[in-house]
Design brief:
37% of the residues lie in helices and 25% in strands. It is of the alpha/beta class and 306 residues long. α9 (251-264) runs antiparallel to α10.
Length: 306
């Protein structure tokens, strides 16, 4: 099994469920509140770790009680805590999450906090970790200059960059040229390429945009429609597993973590996408983000039934 790194965000999720999502100016009485570890980077790393990957998390928290949530969660899951950075002056990031009980749709506000203050010195400090990794998974939830430098180091050492383009933000062509694989959802793909991705043909056009920027492989998640996978001249949509969703909040992160785990253990992209889809299908049947990520044996058992 190869080594993997997730370079990204940690925030504490503050999640409330209610009968419907409030309109502007409306107050809605909720039914459930939960607080727990989150952030796209952290969610993806937990998903990969629980799926069996040899993966290390790099993120930054404040020196506060919310930062302790990260350390406690990692200790419970037996994750490597050696690359957790700390900001003495900035609070740990938070995410305010509202979930509609009827539809499982959500609205999220992210305040990145400390994970938006990663310095050049801190990134250079993880160069040995990047050098040893086969893959590094990144998102757009930390300060972009940190992502840019981490990408430079990855290219220097031949480490393949997987970029989950979430939450959407503009990225330079220079940055994209370093990326091995992009994994946007259909909304992010539209924002980046200007193409409304609704079917195989439109997904192919969006993929061509990324190929023209230097990206080698393209994976576009399409929600209940499945996932579009494009590499080495082969392009298709792999159907989603049809399950009863309870909370879709961490679905994209579950998929990306599963993809990283499968690729780092040597599965081809098509096998990896199916493995990742199974992980995501299991996760949406449970509440929360990191708590919803399944163990490897659950994923294996699920796949044997489909």
């Amino acid at each position: 099994m190869g080594k993997a790194v997730v370079f990204g965000s940690f925030v504490v999720d503050l999640m409330a469920r209610s009968p419907h999502l409030p309109e502007p100016g409306e107050t809605v009485k909720g039914s459930v509140f939960k607080m727990g570890a989150g952030g796209k980077g952290f969610n993806q790393c937990v998903a990969a770790h629980k799926a069996g990957a040899d993966v290390t998390m790099v993120t930054k928290t404040g020196r506060d009680s919310f930062g302790e949530v990260a350390l406690k969660t990692m200790e419970e899951l037996k994750m490597d805590r050696g690359y957790m950075l700390v900001d003495e002056n900035t609070e740990t990031g938070t995410a305010l999450i509202l979930v509609d009980e009827g539809t499982s749709q959500n609205e999220i506000v992210i305040v990145p906090g400390a994970c938006h203050t990663i310095t050049e010195e801190e990134v250079r400090g993880i160069e040995p970790l990047i050098r040893e990794a086969d893959y590094i998974l990144m998102q757009l939830e930390v300060n972009q200059e940190a992502n840019e430098l981490a990408a430079e180091l990855a290219v220097k050492h031949g480490t393949k960059i997987i970029l989950n383009t979430a939450p959407y933000g503009p990225v330079s062509d220079h940055f994209l040229s370093k990326v091995f694989m992009v994994t946007p959802n259909e909304v992010e793909a539209r924002e980046l390429t200007g193409i409304e991705v609704t079917d195989l043909e439109s997904a192919k056009r969006a993929a061509e945009y990324f190929y023209n920027k230097g990206v080698k492989q393209v994976v576009i998640t399409l929600g209940s429609k499945g996932v579009f996978v494009s590499a080495e001249g082969r392009e298709e949509i792999i159907p989603a597993f049809q399950v009863e969703a309870v909370d879709t909040t961490g679905a994209g992160d579950a998929f990306n973590g599963g993809l990283l785990a499968a690729l780092s253990e040597g599965k081809d992209l098509w096998e990896a996408a199916r493995f990742a889809s199974a992980l995501a299908a299991l996760s949406v049947q449970r509440l929360g983000t990191t708590p919803s990520m399944p163990e490897r044996q659950e994923i294996v058992d699920f796949l044997t039934k489909w």
